[in-house]
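fyi for ur records
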Amino acid sequence: MSVRGGAIVGSLTLGLGLLLAPSASADARGPEACPPDVWNKVVSFAPTYESIGNTAGKRNASSTTAILRYDLTTTTTKQTTWGVELGGSLSFGIAEVEAKTSYEITNSTAKGVGFANTMNVPGGKYGYTTPKIERRKFVVERWQDTASCGARKLGNVGTLWGITAYPFYSECVASSACTPKP
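which gave:
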């Protein structure tokens, strides 16, 4: 066999070796595999309302609709709170909620702060208002992508009870005294 003939046989042998399927190990991921990314999801719940001051009310003695002004002062303080489960801090919880929802969170309110609220009250009717905060519960969940491109929940990072509106005014208009809702 000549050198040239040996080179041809060697090339054919090498080429056949490249055509053979490589053996796969049990932990190799297929082309459909997803990277195991970890990410957070924020779940929001319905709001609740908490009073931060006394109810004020007036009767419109006029026969026509009037704008009544109510000067109110807060009588209590309220805090945004964080219940930690997998980790994180209050500032982390606030940052996650603000980044992943349309809500802005107020850390806390102060006692003794003055506010003014105005209401359109028809003639002969009473208008009542109460300063409040709107609070929402947000659960920050930790998720991980799976190799089959699904997702699995790893747990809750924590729960934020965030102040989402401050001040919020509950109001009512009636022929006699009424309780502002919500």
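DSSP finds two helices and eight strands in the chain. thats all i got for now
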